[in-house]
Amino acid sequence: MITANPGLQGRAQPRAPSLGRRLWCRLWLSLGRRLDRRLAAAQSQGEDGVSSPAAAGGPMILSAELAQQIIDKTQDILDANINVMDARGVIIASGDHSRLGTLHDGAMLALQRGNGLEISEHDVDAFKGARPGINLLLQCAGETVGVLGITGPPSQVRQAARLVKVTAEMLVEQADMLSQLEWAKRHREGFILSWVNAELSSEQLHDWAERLGIDVACQRLAVLIELDRGSPSADLDAMQRLMELLARDSLVTQVSPHRVLVLQPLTDQAGQHKQGAHPGPDGAIEALLARLARHDIHGAKVAVGRAFDAPGHLHLSYESARQVLAIGKRQFPERMTYHYDELRLPVLLSPLNDGWQGEQLREAVERIRGADSHGRLLKTLAMLIEHEGNLSRCADALHVHRNTLRYRLDRIQEITGISPHRFTGLVELFLGLELSSGDGVR
Fold first, then answer.
1. Which residues have CB under 8 Å from 41's CB, separation 6+?
2. Do 387 and 308 share a domain, yes or no?
């Protein structure tokens, strides 16, 4: 007799036999630890206030991969064939692979009735290709997402079916939660990337930030961390997790296959500057590198950008960090940390690099280099700039007579048409040297 058994859906369960105890033990050992890790990760990322994927797009959809996981975790414990059907009654996972993709009449009837369904040995003729067994609705967050079918005489599999159903629904709920956490994480990262790339209007910025629970009024500083390109991608994942743990109130995202961006807050909710918030040459960055090394993450370079007050200018802090990293690696490849304050001038001049103005400034230096086989003129020019145009101190530093120094400076004017004796001429030559510094001129 075909039986709709509401008790299978909600009745209090009797004490589980040894099979049940083994099933529960396997369930909690396999799910509990993974669930705790994901919850801890979610808390460290501060994902309060993020709407769920269900709210954004619809109910949970039972995938074939998840359905197969349900079978894999129960098939070797339960001596019976298990089928998992989606919300349409189509078999998406089964111990009998020949049935994949076919309609399951018992599941379709259970879905229509909205309740569990038992098929006895006397009822199989009423269903095409059916076998004796029990069909139970799988639910997640109050929605029916599929049907669990266990083959066997109902009287023999009924007890185990309850436990398998609970196991399956916990797997479904866990997958749904992990999907929501992953969605929230990607949503948060998408916001950060849009923010630092100046892709949002002021209204969009504040609306999106409010939904994510992010304080955009807080002044933030861009810190860019780059791994050596020979490092495995796993190091980057480990580094991003570490950044999230290191700076609970910072925003962290991956901006390229080898770079992680940390937006470190400089002010608290009251707008006051936080104690030690600026990761400058006071050792904070060095401490960060040491902690990376303790987690076997080596070869990281750290670039600290410039802070800007307005939330809409955060992209400028990010851009300054990118410029600091590029210029720092070019001028000081042996160093591991670079700061905007130390590279301020070359960073500010960097927009000239690719323009005709930069070419004009570099042209004078190129002329000197072409006529200065021993490099004396460029060394003299650099020394004069270092001593702020003071001829006496420059001559002493070069260990040459002042007449020799004057001769060299006259020679520079003859080659370039620019007088290093004049303040404006010296500034122009200085800018040319700065723009040429990445070419090994200085």
1. 181, 241, 244
2. no
Q: Which residue from 224, 34, 220 is spatially nearest to 42, judged by alpha carbons? A: 34
Phi and psi based region of residue 67 (left: phi greater than 0; alpha: psi -120 to 50; beta: remaining): alpha
Q: Indicate the pairing of strand 301-304 with strand 337-339.
A: parallel
Work out the angle between the directed axes of helices 233-246 and 284-294 (0-180°, nearest 10): 130
Counting every residue written for the chain, the total comes to: 442
And the tokens for 43?
């808390």
Same domain, 340 and 370: no
Q: What is the CATH number of the domain that holds 47?
A: 3.30.450.40
- Residue 19 and residue 139 in one domain: yes
Tens digits of residue pLDDT in 158-212: 888 888 888 788 888 888 888 887 888 888 889 999 999 999 899 999 999 898 8
The secondary element (H helix, E strand) that includes residue 299 is none
Between CA 115 and CA 9 the distance in angstroms is 7
**Neighbouring residues of 265: CB distance < 8 A, sequence distance ≥ 6:** 215, 218, 219, 220, 249, 250, 274, 277
DSSP 83: E
Q: Report pLDDT digits (tens) over 138-155.
A: 888 778 888 888 888 888
pTM of this structure: 0.62
Q: Which domain holds residue 99?
A: 7-183
Q: Is 192 contained in some domain?
A: no
